[in-house]
Every structure is written in structure tokens, then in C-alpha cells.
Design a protein that fits this description.
The protein is mainly alpha-helical. It is built from six helices and no strands. Bound molecules: protoporphyrin IX containing FE (HEM).
Amino acid sequence: MSWLSDWYPWIKAGHIISVIAWMAGLLYLPRLFVYHAATETGSVQSETFKIMERRLLRAIMNPAMIAVFVFGGLLLATPGIVDWHSGWIYVKLTLVLLLSLLHHALALWRKAFAEDRNSLSARFFRMVNEIPTLIMILIVILVVVKPF
Ligand code: HEM
């Protein structure tokens, strides 16, 4: 596995680039839902939001999430990178699981909007919007500061 050590900086760069793309989607899609929830079903605006939401999820968020997992998995497999006796990695992986569940929930809500059967309010999506921000702050502190 020494090739992983040789490529470590490049793999980490790929990891951070894909994390940025995934986070952009996790922050922007619920914001689109906030505005979409306030539009009339069948209106021009509503149909435009449907296209924006589908493209954001399919063209950016899904591939970015897969790339985060692939690069992150390679970092985990790189010898000497993660000290498995420290606690931060376990908390980080739990938070990543929460982000993945949020991704899944956003995909289901997108489908509901696409089929004109969303019943959730703009206020609800405004609150959902805070979740990825909070998780991202915690993850960055865990991986950079490694407090425990
Ligand atoms: C499957 C998901 C993920 C796995 C397996 C994973 C794993 C890892 C590993 C092993 C490292 C190397 C740590 C080190 O060099 O000390 C790392 C670095 C990093 N990860 Fe992740 N990660 C994942 C998702 C995420 C997510 C969702 C974020 C942010 C929201 C994130 C942010 C970072 C950052 C900023 C670094 C660079 C830290 C540094 O400069 O040392 N990762 N990741």
C-alpha cells in the first residue's frame, strides 16, 4: 500500500475538493426548497425550481458524495494517517453518516417536489438548512484540531 503514501497529498486534495462540492449542494438544495415551498404548484417558478433541484442533485451532489467516500476511504487505508486509538475519527465518521442520511432525505424531498406533493413548509427547510453548516464546522474542527 506504499503507493497510497506516495499519492497522499493528491488524495487529500481530491478529498477536500469533493467535500467542497458536496457541501455546496447540501447547503444550497435546502435553500432552493425554502423558495420552492413558497411557490404555487404548477407555476413557471415551481417548474424552474424542479429543473434546478434535479440538476444540482444529479450532476453535483451525487457524484461529489461518491468522490468524498472514495478519497476518504483511500485516506483511511493510507498507512500511518489515522491513529485508531484517538477518538476524533469515530466521531467524524458518525457525523459523515449523518450528512449521508441528510443527503438521502434531501433526495426524497426533491422527489416529492418533482411530483407536486411536497407538504413541508419553508420554515422547516430553513431549519434543515442549518444542519449541514453545524456538522461541517464540527468535522473540520475534528480533522484539523484532533482534540481527542
Ligand atoms: C466517507 C467519508 C469520509 C472519510 C472516510 C474521511 C476520511 C478522512 C481521512 C482519513 C482524512 C485524513 C486525516 C489526516 O490527514 O490527518 C481526512 C481529511 C480531511 N477530511 Fe475527511 N473523510 C470523509 C468525509 C469528510 C467530510 C464530509 C468532510 C467535511 C465536511 C471532511 C473534511 C476533511 C478535511 C477538511 C480533511 C483535511 C484535514 C487535514 O488537512 O489534515 N471529510 N478525511
